[in-house]
From TrEMBL:
Coiled coil: none annotated. Pfam families: CHAT. This is CHAT domain-containing protein. Residues 318-613, 939-1220 form the CHAT domain. The lineage of its organism: Eukaryota, Fungi, Dikarya, Basidiomycota, Agaricomycotina.
Amino acid sequence: GHADLSSCHHNLANSFSARFKITQRPTDILLAHFSYHTSAMSITGHPSVCLESARQWALLAPDLENWQSETLAAHDRVINLISLIAGIENTSKRQYEVLKELSYDCTRAAAAAMSVNQPLKAIEWLESGRCLVWNQINQLRTPMHELYTCQPDLADRFAFLSNGLEHLGSRVEQSHSRMELPMHVWMSVEVEAYSHLRLAKEREQLLVTIREIPGFESFLQPKKFTDVMRSMPEDCIIVVINADKSRCDALILTPDHDEPTHVALENFSHEKALKLVTDLRKDLRSSQLLPRYSDSVQRKAGPVTSFKRKDNLLMMQVLQELWTDLVEPILNSFPVEFQKGNKKGKLMRIWWCPTGPFAFLPIHAAGVYNQSRHGKCLADIAISSYIPTLSILERLRSRKKTGFSNGSVLLVSQANTPGLPKLHFTNEEVQKTSLELDRRGIRTETLRGEKATVTAVLDRLKAFSCIHLACHASQDTKDPLNSAVHLYDGPLKLSEIMKKNLPHAELAFMSACQTSVGDESLPEEVVHLAAGMLTAGYRSVVATMWSISDEHAPDVAENFYKCLLKDKIADDVVGLDVTGSAQALHVAVQALRRKLGDSPEALLKWVPYVHFGMAVWKRTQRPCIGHSNLPAMQHNLGSSFLTQFNSTRRPADLLLAQSSYRTSATSLTGSPSVWLQSARKWAQLSSGFGELEGEILAAHVQVIKLISLVACFEDTSKRRHELLTGLSQDSTKAAAKALSLNQPSKALEWLEAGRCIVWNQISQLRTPVDELHACRPDLADQLILLSRQLEYFGGRTDPRQSGMELPMQVQMTLEAEAHTHLKLAKEREELLASIRDLPDFESFLLPKTFAELMRGIPNDGATVIINSDKSRCDALIVFATCAEPTLVPLERFSYKRAKNLAEVLRLHLTSRGLQSRYSDEARREARGMRGADETDVLQAVLRDLWTDLVEPILPFLPAEDKDEKDDLPRIWWCPTGPFAFLPIHAAGDYNNHGSRKTLAEFAISSYIPNLSILKRLGFDRQGNNGDRGVFLVSQADAPGLRRIPLTDTEVEKTFNELRRRGIRTAVHGSKAATVAAVSDKLDSFSCVHLACHASQGTKDDPLGSAVYLHEGPLKLSEIMKKNLPHAELAFMSACQTSVGDESLPDEVVHLAAGMLTAGYRSVVATMWSISDEHAPDIAEDFYKCLLNDETADGVVGLDITGSAQALHIAVQALRRKVGDTTEGLLKWILYVHFGI
């Protein structure tokens, strides 16, 4: 037990060894061996002494009789002690300094194992003795869900100790600086060192305790070969190349073989590998390939303008020797099934794990490059990736695929780095990448120039699952932890990257120089930026072996993301699936190769790109992937963990619940309704982890996607609306969360995808397919047929809703129809997938990205989207020239307040009997008594809307250029939630007569149900269909409703005005105005004017909203079935034609929206009951103004593009007549305009 015993035995062994050199007596060598063995195996001595004894023991082992067993035992002890010694050092920098002295021990041990025909042991030793710092960091970050489940106390303690060790290990050690430290600082350093040692010992003791628990015997133990093989991807090959001074070998691992295939590299030696590295470095230096370079800078330096000298051919010689003496012998040793290649013609996948000098050679580009290659190039045979160790595969694979890459790429461009050449193409590279990602709906943020600071990038790493860096980078040979990418305010160092723990990181594209160049004095520690990104959590890294061409970098990046976004390796993964990143890089680099060729100069430009990291995991490897009950089981498991958390308050239970809900929500089998329930719970729990922005966004992406999917499976519009009643606030909640994370574009996209779902689905089924017809008429015809069949099934009435018991035959028919609907829906989805495979049709009928939504925004005016959620209220302003929405937080508004205002207004209207079109006499009879203070209710509502909603928005609207007509600017309002029931267009302070304090004096307002409608309505489409005529309907005596005598007067005035201007008209009144007659006439006229009663449907049947004709109601459900491509204007002079269902505010289920869906581009509607007395004047003034409108010169007929202005003028005329009292306001502010 004496602490010096190990040193004594070591010194004694040195004496015996020295005597043996003189005497050559075998006894001395045996005694030396015994003493070294005793010292190495000591449990009390200093680990560095034990290690030195173990190394000497290993050197003596070949001279012993039982040399094979002694060799294995000695090297096994060496490997264990290397890890122990590195763990004792208390900073990563100190660990690297120690490991420089031990860098060849693990490769020497592996060579010894292969010399005794033990390839399994060689693999295990390489895994245990290499990348020690990375492995220790990963161990400290090991997820402990299983341990938390059975031993939460031990798990908490272990996490505490690991976090403490990681914190102490990653700090900068002041005692190694050259400055003389003050005594208090020196003492603080010593205290920290003591704390590190104490924590390390306590952690080791705790590990012993944990490993005594059944099932945890191998917890954080070095991996056995069988453990490594479990991480092997299918259909791939891993090649480990070991380089030792005694021999070089390759070990080939394939998933179906229990042992590695050993290939002795007889034509290679450690010395030869070093020479190739020296030759390659010489070629790169002669070409001035140090930082990322522009071709002009390179030419000025005189590097590669000529390749006539022999030195300039060194690259080709290096690649040729790698092919003939390394790669070709390895390929010839592959199992037969891999030599034949993939039956589908895909390239082989090879992961290279090189050691020693091989880590600095471009093995992936090995080949004989001349005029006729004929398969003499590895890139023509296989897709290559690199891994620092085999263990990394298990860690990457064990992480759950979250799909966060669907919407999160951070783009960084730094063209002007102080002291380094300007990079002219980084901005172009990032711009091309951003456009490609935005087009596919991937969320991006760009940091460019002054914004690309170290702090800004570090702060956003957790918010984005992917990062693309286009900048300078450098390798620090003296201190590899100072290797860095260079940003605006300085370097982002490898030491800072190592501190990050990003469990949801996916892809790092490092378009910079030397990002995979390690320290030559530490080849087995793989100390470079690419490995640092893997350690931080990124599963896939694109890096470079030397400087890249600034000119060609944008093309490589653009082609990479194009291929990645179109990748078919994982058909079930939507968005940016990084499992195809190696293939995408291969495709992009080979495209550059075809462009530049295989000349020495060209090789320098395409060879440096390399891929590190993850594999393409086969979906069949997922346990129970096809089981239909798996999502429900995971959902129930999540609910159990959540219940347990509510009792224990343990964070681990909450994490486990979140993980289970995520697994269920992203399942490929089972019920979509279960997926949706799980996604909603996932989103709810994710909001509790504010730092995991990617998790939050991914959860809400899944919710939005599944809402539409689940609604699609319902086989009638009524059933869809019933389903959506319970989901009405999900889209606004998601948008609010996106806004809280400063993602206004994403908020807008989610509002579009998650609102007006039924209208959007109907519009998609009617989408013109002219472009598709032009190139694939067969697919277009098939899509039209399926869409019409689906629309028929969706629009029919479901008799099951009647509550009556149906005959068996009817029930069977309904079940058959439901089955047919599901079959057609699936067939249409498969057809859409085929269409999206066609060039230029990749986004056919997909949810719109912000860029696509902006194409429908009118050139004049602004569109204001008001989002209302219980957590916050905001306005988003978009206009034709904006790059992204302008966010205006509505700090003085809340969801509750908006709902209260809407309820106060509803009660006010109800108390006044404003439920149907009325005559003043009938209204006085109906409204009864009211309180004296009720007269101020409406003005109070309008004043609140002005001061707290509209007035804060107005300063952010774009400035309008006044033309000669001095027209008021246009505003399109797109309200959500309770705001949809408030008269925003009439907001104002009507008690202040001295100044402009009403919105109507600032702008002409219109409403839209969503942004997508603007593109379909088409502002660039000429409004010249007015010559198709106006159909006028008057119904004064609807059965069971009060008579409204002035409808005939209204229609007569309108008819006379139109006939006087030569507009074709037809009038149906009284008994002629039947449902069938009116429905038929809608197809024959581009405009319709309805003067009649109307009503809003009940909560149980929102599609029952209707206008009342002679024989009964013309319901919204019937209007929805219409598809009127030449429709222009619908003037609905009836009550409540723009009042939606309060339980479905974001589905906008009212008559005005129905008219837009049917095809009408402009709709005049009402928010409550209109005055029969004033309706004729409004209509007459409207058409007079519309017919006099000069907004579209040369248009013959009724130009409806001026309908919003015409309604504004007509309503303001009525306002001047009746005033701004409560009575007056009730008569004029109810008129609203929808559409263009």
